[in-house]
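Model it.
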Amino acid sequence: MRIAFIFHDASIYGAPKSLLDLIDGLEKLNADITCFAILPHEGPLLQEIKRRKIPYQVVSYRRWVHKIQEPWRISARKVIHSLRDNRLFRAGMSLRAAFQIQKHLKHWNVDIVYTNTSVIVVGALASYLAKKKHVWHIREFQEIDQGLTLDWGKKVFATVVAKTNAIIYISKTLHQYYQPWVKGVRTQVIYNGVATKDDFDRIKKNKQEYQRKDQPFTFCIVGRISPAKGQLEAVQALNILVKEGWKPRLLIAGKGNQKAISTLVRRLQLEEYVHLIGHVDSPYQSVYFLSDVCLMCSSHEAFGRVTVEAMASGLPVIGKKNKYTGTVELIQENQTGLLYEGNEVELAAEMRRLLMDPAMGQQLGSNAWMYAKDHLNREQYVQQVYDLLVSL
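Modeled.
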């Protein structure tokens, strides 16, 4: 089987990292699988592709979504940029790239084209032109989690997606969200596998050997710095606990503008308790191994790679409950973690439970590790995708 994977980005985080894991797993599972890669530009991911000796092409293409801008945030510079990079321009770039890609698909003689996220359309167009099977791996809500809106609206999106051969959703919640307007397509929910079973054992062993010296009870929140991710809510919840006389620590790890968080920390005089550590390439030793509990405060999380990483580290996760969030699918309440619904007051209540009963948190973390190893491992993720590809 010969598969061409279409990446939406050349960074190594989130969706590209999950796809890279899938490629590694597929080639290990079956030696007869040959993988190819299409990237929109050069970047750290390209080095990983080269290291694995995966045939690739860099073809310039754009997304078919754009960022929702609040009126008060629109500057003259952004207006000028929007004139140069509008939806017609992005559509033209995608169409031109599709013709280029379809030539590579025919040259490589691929069987299946595999698009990694819903924010690009070029894979669907190229597969249609080359008369190849197409799989769409949808990993985001778009609007409610990333503030993205479709260039041509939901009807056009649904029409294009309906031409694909299969859709993979990374959570049942995501499937539920798209189901009203994406119909008539074969679909399957497949959870990402963050680590192999051997990795789970290795992480557990490394954590047991890791020395924590006289550190306070520590909460962590990991992920892109954004209002949607809930870092400010976590700080406000910590403030409630500090005012009650508790002295916990909060580690905030992630890439992005920290100004709003820093301002809030200073205003609440929490400098002693909140530590902003920025982006970390490997969160295990630098964050998870230093923590007792992980917080997932995102209102709309399509899946939650961070949640599974924390579970793999033996941490209980306190997750936010909402109509559209995959967090509730990963956490079994009061068995592998805790859930809250509301704001910082409700979050602080769950954090307080684990401060008062650390043994409970340790048991939840142990249960979480076992559950994640059995149900969220990379072998299962790869096997399910492989079975779908074979069936096509």
